[in-house]
Amino acid sequence: MKKTYRIKRNEEFQYVLQHGNSFANRQLVIYYMDKPDQDHFRIGLSVGKKLGNAVTRNRIKRYLRQAFHELEDEIKPTVNIVIIARHPTVDMNFHHIKKSLSHLLFKTRLKNK
Q1: How far is CA 36 from the centre of its chain?
Q2: Are residues 46 and 82 in contact, defined by beta-carbon separation less than 8 angstroms?
Q3: Terminal alpha carbon distance of the chain
Q4: What is the mean pLDDT of residues 76-87?
Q5: Which of 75, 77, 78, 71 is nearest to 97 (CA)?
Q6: Do residues 50 and 100 touch, judged by C-beta distance below 8 A?
């Protein structure tokens, strides 16, 4: 995933968390906010230290980035999205994480198709 597709600054994270809408399932929490002046979506990932060591947290973030990469064509381009991983993601493989993320995007109507 290109770096221009990521939310990096703390102020941007906080703005989406405070002013955006949210939805959750057992594995992930999604905060999203419409931003009409963008030409592509942006994502921010948060995986807390309670979920495991750095290797585990980085694996979860890698899986989430790859899932977004594969779903890139189906996501509305004018949104900022922050994903927070919950504890069940520690034991999940890539396909389960992608399915969970796809479910959240469908429920929040962020998918085009």
Answers
A1: 19
A2: yes
A3: 21
A4: 92
A5: 71
A6: no
